[in-house]
Amino acid sequence: MARLELDHAGIAEVLVSDGFRAATLQAAVEVAAVARARGLRTEDGAPLPVGGARGAGHRPGGCVGGDSARRRVGMEARHGVLRRAAEQVGLDPHGLDGEDSR
Q1: In 3-state terms, what secondary structure has residue 47?
Q2: Is 46 inside any structural domain?
Q3: Per-residue pLDDT, 19
Q4: For 17-37, b where at least 16 C-beta lie within 10 A, e where not — what string?
Q5: Is 48 a residue whose pLDDT tops 80?
Q6: Kindly report the CA angle at 77 between 75 and 78, in degrees rounded to 5?
Q7: Is the confidence at residue 11, as pLDDT, over 70?
Q8: What is the pTM of this model?
Q9: 32 in a domain, yes or no?
Q10: How many whole angstroms separate alpha carbon 60 and alpha carbon 70?
Q11: Closest C-alpha to 41, from 85, 77, 81
Q12: C-alpha span between 15 and 89 (Å, rounded)
């Protein structure tokens, strides 16, 4: 059996590259647009706070919303808002453990 060796420095270089950042940001923007288009509201009646990350210090392509993060997490946990939006734009989202979280 062939032995697989990972080039950790090379992987890190790809993950912090401008190209990777641009691709993940574009995906986040598309997912956010689909999620917002559903017109869902939080328990207090505010529109679902979701948008693509653009500022320094954010995870590349992450969805951010400042103080409203708890509301987004709740909507994702209860309704799968971001997972469904990601699937709609052609992504294949999975849980952090590598298994499908559905």
Answers
A1: strand
A2: yes
A3: 94
A4: eeeeeeebbebbbbbbebbbe
A5: no
A6: 65
A7: yes
A8: 0.65
A9: yes
A10: 20
A11: 81
A12: 22
